[in-house]
Design goal:
CATH superfamily: Transmembrane di-heme cytochromes, Chain C
Strand order of the largest sheet: 1-2
Number of domains: 1
CATH architecture: Up-down Bundle
Radius of gyration: 20 Å
Largest sheet: 2 strands, antiparallel
Number of strands: 2
CATH topology: Fumarate Reductase Cytochrome B subunit
Length: 184
């Protein structure tokens, strides 16, 4: 008599991990897009409004990143999928760099805003302390670091999405399903 074995059940991330992942993904794409759009606008009330929104989103990303990191530290992720060692190393390095940038990009933006003399007032209600003193030369030094780190994060997000789609459509290994809400 032949025995049948059922496939190993898919190990999934927790609902909280999924929620934080997708919420941050939406905020990152929206904030990056707004940042690229607003920088070329002429000085106007609209441009000031977009800068405020961009800062609010940056502070929100920073806080959600803290929550995500705390959740990640206290909740083990699913076991790694079987994949070539170089892919696993690349995935771990990409994730580590993304986590670092989740903090670096908003902190650099906050420092740039503070050094420029423009306070960060979260949602127009909660004034945050200046991260650094007002210093135009410091602001000019920080600005390209904020922009470059945001561009690096965008490139890593594209790489991350591309790798996830490759696993889903080419490898068909259900890696993407671990971070998608369950169907059915």
């Amino acid at each position: 008599m032949a025995t049948t074995t059922s496939p190993t059940p898919l190990q999934r991330y927790t609902g909280m991990a999924m929620g934080l992942h997708w919420l941050l993904a939406l905020l990152l794409v929206g904030t990056f897009s707004l940042g690229v759009y607003m920088t070329d606008l002429p000085f106007s009330p609209s441009r000031l409004k977009y800068y405020s929104w961009h800062k609010w989103a940056g502070v929100t990303i920073l806080l959600l990143s803290l929550a995500r990191l705390a959740w990640r530290i206290t909740h083990r992720p699913p076991a790694d999928q079987a994949m070539p060692a170089w892919q696993a190393r690349a995935a771990h390095a990409t994730h580590a760099l993304l986590y670092a940038l989740f903090f670096a990009v908003p902190l650099l933006g906050w420092a740039y805003s503070s050094a420029s003399g423009f306070p960060v007032v979260w949602f127009g209600v909660l004034p945050l302390p200046d991260f650094v003193p007002v210093d135009k030369l410091l602001a000019e030094t920080i600005k390209p670091w904020h922009e470059r780190s945001a561009m690096l994060m965008a490139a890593l997000v594209v790489l991350h999405v591309g790798a996830a789609l490759k696993h889903h459509f080419i490898d068909r290994d259900r890696l993407l399903d671990r971070m998608r809400p369950a169907r059915g």
